[in-house]
Backbone:
């Protein structure tokens, strides 16, 4: 297992709650992309083989970790597609690799240890209140009903939160989407800005008969629609305190999440139109690119590895 960290770990141990991966990336930009990190890692740490992992929601069903390894969700503007797990206990590392440039100045967040902007309990409370408002919104009400948000998964990642859902469109097609947000911190005292991302995608195996992939441990492709982005800037120390999430702050976060979700609903509607018109995946991708103002980079397709 490997830990990809923004800065140098000043002892010989990776802490409990840290996200790690079974894959060894030599390119830090690839690590950021496939692991959906909020930062470009400056260091890679190889962990001791004796590790204990937490059970995760949405795990790969066929993996040997018994529900403890999952395919990384697209989040924070990154496509994901690698594999991740979470340490339930601290573990020593046996090797440290510093990437050529080290930590990149100006990154969205600086992560040395898992300083969460919200605890899991507060993140769940925010989700429940959010969907109470969202279910009354005509543009995204149908998306919520199809996605069964009460059964959606939650990840309180380092300095960020990810809400993950599925939408069953046909027997063979199942979309996934995430609403994620993260803070840019000023030291450890307060958050000075927030970023919000909405992402929609589906995975297919190399076997074209399987759409979408029913086994996330297999090699294949991830097809992502355009990323929806929003932000809040200019916060002060009195605006946001993670340990005391006021109704005012909660409503501020909910408003931005609603804006992102509405735009996601529009993308899903476009996706439906394209998908039902073309049964062939190559035709679908070509048509969607044309529909989106002829900009091929709007539709992203990445290779996803096997476990």
Residues:
């Amino acid at each position: 297992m490997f830990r990809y960290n923004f800065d140098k770990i000043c002892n010989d141990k990776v802490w409990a709650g840290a996200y790690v991966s079974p894959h060894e990336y030599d390119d830090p930009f690839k690590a950021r992309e496939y692991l959906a990190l909020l930062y470009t890692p400056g260091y890679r740490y190889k962990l001791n083989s004796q590790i204990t992992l937490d059970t995760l929601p949405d795990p790969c069903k066929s993996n040997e970790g018994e529900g403890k390894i999952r395919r990384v969700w697209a989040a924070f503007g990154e496509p994901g597609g690698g594999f991740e797990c979470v340490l339930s206990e601290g573990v020593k590392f046996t090797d440290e690799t510093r990437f050529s440039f080290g930590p990149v100045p100006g990154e969205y967040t600086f992560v040395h240890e898992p300083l969460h902007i919200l605890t899991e309990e507060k993140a769940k409370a925010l989700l429940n209140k959010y969907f109470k408002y969202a279910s009354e919104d005509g543009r995204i009400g149908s998306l919520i009903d199809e996605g069964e948000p009460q059964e959606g998964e939650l990840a309180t990642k380092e300095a960020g939160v990810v809400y993950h859902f599925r939408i069953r469109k046909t027997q063979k097609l199942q979309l996934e989407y995430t609403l994620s947000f993260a803070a840019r911190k000023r030291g450890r005292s307060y958050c000075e800005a927030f970023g919000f991302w909405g992402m929609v995608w589906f995975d297919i195996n190399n076997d074209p008969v399987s759409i979408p992939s029913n086994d996330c441990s297999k090699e294949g492709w991830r097809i992502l629609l355009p990323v929806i982005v929003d932000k809040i800037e200019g916060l002060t120390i009195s605006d946001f305190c993670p340990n005391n999430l006021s109704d005012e702050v909660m409503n501020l976060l909910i408003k931005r999440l609603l804006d992102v979700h509405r735009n996601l609903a529009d993308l899903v509607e476009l996706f439906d139109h394209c998908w039902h018109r073309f049964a062939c995946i190559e035709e679908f991708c070509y048509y969607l690119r044309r529909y989106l103002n002829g900009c091929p980079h709007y539709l992203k397709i990445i290779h996803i590895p096997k476990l």
